[in-house]
Amino acid sequence: MTAQAALEPMQAFAELGLIHLGENNMSQVLGRISELEKRTIPGADEVSVSLVHAGQASTAAFTGELALHLDETQYELGGGPCLAAAAGGETMHVTDMAAEDRWPEYAPEAVSRGARSSVSVGIPVQQAVTGALNIYSTRAEAFDDVAVDLARAFASYAAVALANAHLYASTAALAGQMQDAMATRAVIEQAKGILVSQRGCTPEDAFDILVRASKNANRKLREIAESLVEKSQRG
Predict the structure, then answer these.
(1) What is the pLDDT of residues 170-193, one digit of tens each?
(2) For the segment 103-114, what is each residue's pLDDT rounded down to a tens digit?
(3) Where in the sequence is the domain holding 194, given as residue range(s)?
(4) Is 19 domain-assigned?
(5) Which pairing describes strands 46-53 and 117-126: parallel, antiparallel, or unpaired?
(6) Averaged confidence pLDDT in the chain
């Protein structure tokens, strides 16, 4: 995939201001925030947004396979910087995963996947929902004070977007969106498994194939994945 050009912070914030909640659902808004943040934060390789509702965590937006895997690893283990940031509304900065001792189960897994540093910033959504904006890098000590401050600025935009989105959807609808997000990830994982089996590629390459197909066909990633799964089931 071709990398997009980097953005200056003021340009990114201006583009965030052009997002119309009435024309985009919460997932689309968060997806746009993630994309812009990846292009703006120095050192960012992948970005995601985690939401926690009724004790259930899910990733509402992500820019790549690495971010999604690291998020879900933390959910499975029940601990990690993104969950800590969401719970406390704080900033969790991991400068070097290889030397991180706050999350002894998660950190080695992150290193094994190639992640060496991260920043997670808590975002309040509403009483029943908390969240975190997560930035991951494959380099140790990738995020300096300027990068962390920018991450906090983006988190403030995410918080406003989520608060406004609540005007369009009830807590029940929000929970439904989270369930949809989990269902989407499930079918994407199925499609990735099919591609890995058929082409002998890695899961990361399979994900990239799906993303390219989505862009080329101008269809949602979930639709592409569902089509592949249905075709496989028909034999």
Answers:
(1) 555 666 667 777 778 889 999 999
(2) 999 999 999 999
(3) 182-234
(4) yes
(5) unpaired
(6) 86
What CATH number does residue 186 fall under? 1.10.10.10
Whether 130 and 221 share a structural domain: no
CA dist 77 to 5, 51, 108, 214, Å?
35, 16, 12, 31
- The Cβ-side half-sphere exposure at 174, using a 13 Å CA radius, reads 26
Where is average pLDDT lowest: 81-90, 126-135, 138-147, 199-208? 126-135
Q: Angle at Cα 145 formed by Cα 142 and Cα 146, nearest 5°?
A: 90
pTM of the model: 0.69
